[in-house]
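The authors assume throughout that readers already know how a fold can be written as C-alpha cells. What matters is that the chain and its backbone geometry are given together, residue for residue. A single example would do more here than another paragraph of explanation. For illustration, here is how one protein appears when written out as sequence plus C-alpha cells.
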Amino acid sequence: MQLKGKGIIKSPEVEAAFLATDRKHFCPKEMERFAYDDRPIRHGRFHMSAPHIYASSLEILDLREGDKFLCVGSGSGYFCTLVGNIIGPTGINHGIEIFGDVVDFANEKCLSYEFTYDITATTNDDASQDNKSSSSNNSSNDAYEGKKSRQAPSDGARKILAHIARQHPNVPQYLTGNCFELRPQHNIRYDRIYVAAGAPNSMCEALGEFLEIGGCLVGPFGDTLLKVTRRSPTSFSREIKGHVSFAPLLTHLEGKGKEEEAPQAV
C-alpha cells in the first residue's frame, strides 16, 4: 500500500475508507484505465484529485462517526463516499456542485455503489508477495487503497471494515447550486467542510460561517492547502498544510446555463 507506506495514510479510519471505496466505480468510463493510478483524473466537467490529495485531506479533516459534513464542489461523489465510510449512517453527508449533469452522475454512482471488500481474502503472505511485485511494477493496480487490494489491512482497519460491512451505508445527498450564493442563516452548521477546488482567500471565513464552533474546513485557497478552524463565533485560526494546485471553483456566471438554480439550503 504505497499511500500507507509513504506515511500519507496514517489512521485506520482513512485506511479502511480507501479499502472500502473503489475509485473505478466513480470514474467516467473513458478514464477507468487510470482509476488506480495516483494521479488526478479530468474528463470534461469531471475532475477527481489524485488519491494522495484525498488521503492527506481526510487525515487533516480528522472525521468522526456522526459528523456533519459538507463537500463544496462534490464532483463524481468519490470523496463523499470515502467520508461516508468514516462518519457512518448517523452522519450528515452533503455535497454541492454547480453542474447538474455531474450531480446526476454522482447520485447514480453513490446509489449503485455496494460494499464488496472481502476482509477474509487478505493474508499477510499475500501482503508480502504484493510488496515484492509492487517494487517491480510501479503501475500496479495496488498503487493505493482504492480497490480490493490483496494486501492485508492493519488490525484497526480490519475492525472498521467489519463495522462498515454490518451497518447501513451513508448515502451522500447532492444538490446542484453555487457555493458562492449560500447563506449561513439558511443552512445547518457542519463539523467538517472540504473544498474540492481552488477558492479565493476571501472565501475562508465566508465558508467558515457554516462551521460549528470547533469545526474545521480544509481546502486549497490560493496555492496553499489550508485548515481553517472556527474557535468562536467571530474568530478563526489558519494552518498551512501544504502547497497545491487545483482547478478553480466556478462562479454562477461562469457556470451559467449549465446548472440548476442554487439551493437556499444544504
